[in-house]
Structures are given as C-alpha cells and as structure tokens.
From TrEMBL:
The gene is mutY. Adenine glycosylase active on G-A mispairs. MutY also corrects error-prone DNA synthesis past GO lesions which are due to the oxidatively damaged form of guanine: 7,8-dihydro-8-oxoguanine (8-oxo-dGTP). Pfam families: HHH, HhH-GPD, NUDIX_4. Binds 1 [4Fe-4S] cluster. It is an enzyme of class 3 (hydrolase). InterPro entries: A/G_AdeGlyc_MutY, DNA_glycosylase, HhH-GPD_domain, HhH_base_excis_C, HhH_motif, MIG/MutY, MutY_C, NUDIX_hydrolase-like_dom_sf. Keywords: 4Fe-4S, DNA damage, DNA repair, Glycosidase, Hydrolase, Iron, Iron-sulfur, Metal-binding. It comes from the Bacteria. This is Adenine DNA glycosylase. It comes from Mesonia profundi. It catalyses: Hydrolyzes free adenine bases from 7,8-dihydro-8-oxoguanine:adenine mismatched double-stranded DNA, leaving an apurinic site. Its EC number is 3.2.2.31. Residues 35-186 form the HhH-GPD domain.
Length: 354
C-alpha cells in the first residue's frame, strides 16, 4: 500500500472533529491556520471561536479596530500574527471585494501568509495539489525516511518540501495534507509516540534504527537574551492607572503596558530602580514606589527571557500629577486594553476591577 494511502486510511478513522474542517470557506480556514502557527490546537480553539463570534466575516474583521483585534488575541503570543491578520483582512475586504485569492501563488502574496499557510488554504479550499510542510510533517518524514538534515536549515527546508511534493496524493490533496499533519500531531508525536500501533512502523527507518528521539534534527538556536523589566504601576484613589502604548518593531508592538524601566540587573531596592530611570517618569513619582513581587517573575519568549518586577505607586489623584509624558494615558477600564500575558496575570492578581 502506498504511503499516502496508509495515512489517509488512518486519518479517516482518527481525525479530530474541528470546526474549520467542516467548511471550504477560505476565511475560517485562513483564520485557523494563522492562529495555529506556533500554537497547539487545544490552545488556539477557544480563540478561533471568539474571533468567529466577534468577526463572522472578513468584512467584520477588516472593520474592527486594531486594539480590539489585539485584545481578543491577548494570550496567544506572537502578536505580529494578529497585526498581519488584521492588515490582510482589510486588504481582502477593500481591495479584493472580500474574495480570497484561489491559488497558492496568489495566496502567498498576502501579508502573514507563507509557504505553509498558502499551501494549506490552496489545497483545503480549492484542491490545488500543493504539499503542506509544518512541524508535524517534518517530523513524520524525517522519522519515516531517516533523514537527519536539520529541518531549520536552508538545505533541509528545500529537501523536505521536495519530498513532500513527491509524496502528495494529487487526486485528493486536501485529505492527504490534513492526514499527514494530523498523523504527526496525534500518532507520530514529538515525545513518546505510540510506535507499537503505528501503521507506518514496518517501513519506518527511525523505528528500525531506534532513532525516534533523535529525529527530526534542528540547528541550535542563538543564545536567548535576558532582560530585566520594571513596570511602574501608578494608581490613584479613583481607580485610575497609567498606561502607555508600545511602539517600534517588537513582538509586543501596539500592546499596552505600564510605564517601563529596563535595567541591566534586578532592581532590589528603590535606589536601584531610580538609578535606571531614563526620565520616562518624574523622579518624585518613583520615590513613592514599593516593590510588589519579592522575586522577579520569569517570563520566557521565543528569543529572550524576561525578569519582571512590578512597582506600585499610589497617588491621591493622577490628574494632579505634574510632568507626565503626553504618551501616557489614564484609565479606570484597564481590562479593555490588550496587554502582554505577564501584565494580564498581574492585573488579575492585583484586582483593579474589584
């Protein structure tokens, strides 16, 4: 039996019941694929339902404010995905009259849509014979064929894409592509795959050579940078708090945060904190700060490790505080702003809304 037939037979019995598999409408399929980039299905599924409820069509998503999109996305991480999602929705709605491109090449021109996502949409919606290659596919092919070329190398990306195209069931690419991804997610899982009941076991090179745990191979990543973040939480007796909007090109672009002071070491005392102030806040404000968490909170991102401290400053009335930057805003509705997860957890613990 051919490789793709075995996978398809397995899929028809074991496939999970997922909402985007019940349609060929490119909008929910595109939405799900963007959300599931670097996100597990069980984590992304609630967000998919939230977005579909809030924005049932691409026109609804295009008409939303970026702040609302980022707020609904809050907690999924990799926020550039949400910004690209919103940009593309506006492009499709306004420039393409709400009609998504129907070919792999055209889909790949959309912002935030790369080779994998374009292949997925083109095959799932339009049955175009293009192979998907995601982490699950890399794992299945690497183990089954015993390929140790690093999957994150230029050579590996080309090699696996070429192999995936050769194996593709061109008569039903939409079924095969979903089958191989589902197989990698459920059967040929990253850790502790159940090889004893695997339908590919007999011809699997990694199983025969006892190299399951060694494959697929990846080139080592660059060293993760460590940063020290000190958030200054200035609140008054009326329940107002100071926030600022992040700018620049970082992953948290356009999210909101408390005024931030970065330091080259953990600030254990008020004197430490003041020494790193770049005048983003008046010194007389910082002189009233008290440390909220005794030990810095470790917050790990893909490219850096943050050590986060929150400092509380209580004032009588924020409107009367002098020398505040114009970029700072005052609000008593902090729950309506999109913030990074580490700040969201602090907000819940501190109890602003109580």
């Amino acid at each position: 039996m051919k490789f793709h037939n075995k996978l398809t037979d397995w899929y028809l019995v074991n496939a999970r019941d997922l909402p985007w598999r019940e349609t060929q409408d490119p909008y929910p399929i595109w939405l799900s694929e963007i959300m599931l980039q670097q996100t597990r299905i069980n984590q992304g599924l609630p967000y998919f339902f939230k977005f579909m409820e809030a924005f049932p069509t691409v026109f609804d998503l295009a008409g939303a404010s970026e702040d609302k999109v980022l707020k609904l996305w809050q907690g999924l991480g990799y926020y550039s995905r949400a910004r690209n999602l919103h940009f593309t929705a506006k492009y499709v709605a306004h420039e393409l009259n709400g009609v998504f491109p129907t070919t792999y090449k055209e889909l790949k021109q959309l912002k935030g849509v790369g080779d994998y996502t374009a292949s997925a949409i083109a095959s799932f919606c339009y049955q175009e014979p293009v192979a998907v290659v995601d982490g699950n596919v890399y794992r299945v092919l690497s183990r089954y064929f015993g390929i140790d070329t690093p999957i994150n190398s230029t050579e590996g990306i080309k090699e696996f894409k070429s192999l995936a195209e050769k194996l593709l069931d061109k008569k039903q690419p939409h079924i095969y592509n979903q089958a191989i991804m589902e197989f990698g997610a459920l059967q040929c899982s990253p850790k502790s795959p159940d090889c004893d009941i695997c339908p590919l076991q007999v011809d699997c090179v990694a199983f025969q050579q006892n190299s399951i745990t060694a494959l697929p191979r990846k080139l080592k990543k660059t060293k993760v940078q460590e940063r020290n973040y000190n958030y200054i939480v200035v609140v008054d007796k009326e329940g107002q708090v100071l926030l600022e909007k992040r700018t620049g090109k970082g992953i948290w672009k356009n999210l909101y945060q408390f005024p931030l002071i970065e330091s080259t070491k953990t600030c254990e005392t008020l004197e430490d904190l003041i020494s790193f102030n770049d005048e983003s806040l008046p010194q007389h404000i910082l002189e009233e700060a008290s440390l909220y968490n005794e030990k810095p909170i470790k917050h790990v991102l893909s490219h850096r490790k943050l050590w986060v401290s929150f400092w509380i400053v209580e004032v009588e009335k924020l409107k009367l505080v002098e020398n505040l930057s114009k970029s700072l805003l005052m609000t008593n509705q902090i729950d309506t702003f999109a913030v990074p997860v580490v700040i969201e957890k602090f907000i819940d613990a501190y109890g602003f809304s109580e």
